[in-house]
Design goal:
The protein has about 250 residues and is an alpha/beta fold. The protein has one domain (about 40-250): Rossmann fold (3-Layer(aba) Sandwich), CATH 3.40.50. The protein has helices at about 15-30, 60-70, 90-95, 105, 120-130, 160-170, 185, 205-220, 230-235; strands at about 10, 35-40, 55, 75-80, 100, 110-115, 135-140, 145, 150-155, 175, 190, 195-205, 220-225, 250. Strands 3, 4, 5, 6, 7, 10, 11, 12, 13 and 14 form a ten-stranded mixed sheet that branches. Strands 1-2 form a two-stranded parallel ribbon. The protein has a two-stranded antiparallel ribbon with strand order 8-9. Strand 4 (about 75-80), helix 3 (about 90-95) and strand 5 (about 100) form a beta-alpha-beta unit. It is globular. It starts with 9 loop residues before the first strand and ends with a strand. About 45% of the residues are buried. Bound molecules: NADP nicotinamide-adenine-dinucleotide phosphate.
């Protein structure tokens, strides 16, 4: 059932990617219907994620929001920041027994890693990390050289933000996710009366995307795979048509 609400998308079959971009453009016009029908190549439930250790690079708004979902669903979380584990003691205490803190290089040894630091910090942080061969890394960053209100978007030439991040993390299986939602749409229970919060994701490794989709659907999100870091990443990164677009999937 379509709804005439500017921020609501209806996820449904029937549109290919080209139509989908056109439909989003239509919905974003002031007189648009606000309803977008889009096809998800991953319509099936990706299944639930077994308990794992999740490392966060960054322990701010986004890392904490993801950590709280993870802990609620039985995962262990290792948080890290630039100021060291001692500075995270109050947060770890608040998160409970499944949370610990460690330096970034140790948090990066987890089964799955969440990258959630400011864009200017990414290269320096990446240079401190051990090899991440095969590790699934959720890239939640947005390529702001300086954040709003004086926003400046990084010029990466031909690369999408996550292609650039992947180039700094050789061997890692990077999945772009959680970057396109404002924190207030990530932190709460994503299951709303009108539907589940859509979580767009993109990546070049299908198994890694299945892992992230499984985790996201366990948290209550409706994951929607948009393809590669190049094609899908372009749609959800800063400046893309899905950046900051908050959608509910009507089940
Ligand atoms: N906030 C949102 O609504 C939102 C939504 C989607 C995506 N994002 C993106 O997600 C990323 C994080 O945003 P945020 O809002 O969570 O930022 P935040 O609250 O400012 O947190 C940033 C975190 O990164 C840590 N950090 C900085 N340099 C580090 C380093 N070298 N090694 C390890 N940790 C380091 C900081 O720790 P210290 O304080 O110790 O330096 C802090 O814990 C950004 O790229 C942002 O664009 C934000």
């Amino acid at each position: 059932m379509a709804r005439n609400t500017p921020d609501l998308l209806e996820v449904a079959a029937g549109y290919d990617l080209a139509d989908f971009e056109a439909a989003i453009e239509q919905a974003r016009r002031p007189a648009g219907t606000g309803t977008v029908l889009l096809t998800t190549p991953q319509a099936a439930d990706p299944g639930q994620a077994g308990p794992m250790k999740i490392g966060t690079l960054g322990a701010g708004t986004i890392a904490q929001a993801i950590a709280r979902h993870a802990i609620r669903h039985g995962h262990e979380v290792v948080l890290s920041n630039s100021r060291g584990p001692a500075s995270l003691a109050p947060l770890v205490q608040d998160l409970g027994a499944r949370a610990t803190a460690a330096p970034p290089a140790e948090a990066a040894l987890a089964d799955l890693v969440v990258l959630a630091v400011g864009w200017p910090q990414v290269p320096g942080l990446a240079a401190q990390l051990p090899p991440l061969d095969g590790t699934v890394v959720i890239d939640a960053t947005n390529q702001f050289d300086s954040p709003p209100p004086n926003a400046k978007i990084a010029d990466l030439g031909d690369l999408t933000g996550s292609e650039y991040v992947a180039s700094l993390l050789p061997g890692a299986r990077v999945v772009k996710a959680f970057n396109a939602l404002f924190a207030q749409f990530i932190a709460p229970d994503p299951r709303h009366e009108a539907g589940r919060q859509v979580l767009f994701l993109a990546g070049d490794d299908t198994d890694a995307k299945d892992t992230v989709s499984g985790l996201a659907s366990q948290f209550g999100f409706a994951p929607v795979d948009l393809g590669t870091l190049r094609e899908g990443g372009r749609l959800i990164q800063l400046g893309g048509p899905l950046s900051g677009l908050h959608a509910l999937q009507q089940d």
